[in-house]
């Protein structure tokens, strides 16, 4: 059995709950596979980081989903199958697109909270 080391501290995930950290590390491994043409040897460190954070059952489930072409995370060309050809057109979003989506989501959340506060005040 290979030696498993814990992933290094990541300031993006300061909380005790590491579920998002796990999901991100797994998808970073998939990104590595995508960039290296599915060269698993080149992506051993990323896989090890995911394995050290994630429950084995989650990794096995995501691996199976990738094999079946229905993984909800980042896709590689190898994840595509004939029945699920939609994935062939998927690409990674740019960092700017991700930042924009997060900003819009934050504004929508703030607007919804503001609306709820206004409704509470008028209902009194």
Features:
single chain, about 120 residues, mainly alpha
Number of strands: 0
| Rg, Å, rounded | 19 Å
Order of helices and strands: HHHH
Helical residue percent? Answer: 40-55%
> Structural class, from helix and strand content?
mainly alpha
Q: What's the pLDDT, averaged over the residues?
A: 75
The separation of the N and C termini measures: 64 Å
The number of helices is 4
In what range is the share of β-strand residues? under 5%
The dominant shape is globular
Largest sheet: none
Outline the low-pLDDT stretches: 81-92
Structural overview:
This protein has helices at residues 19-35, 44-53, 56-68, 95-122. The chain is mainly alpha-helical and 124 residues long. α1 (19-35) runs antiparallel to α2.
Concise structural overview:
The chain is built from 4 helices and no strands.
Topology:
Blueprint: H1 19-35, H2 44-53, H3 56-68, H4 95-122
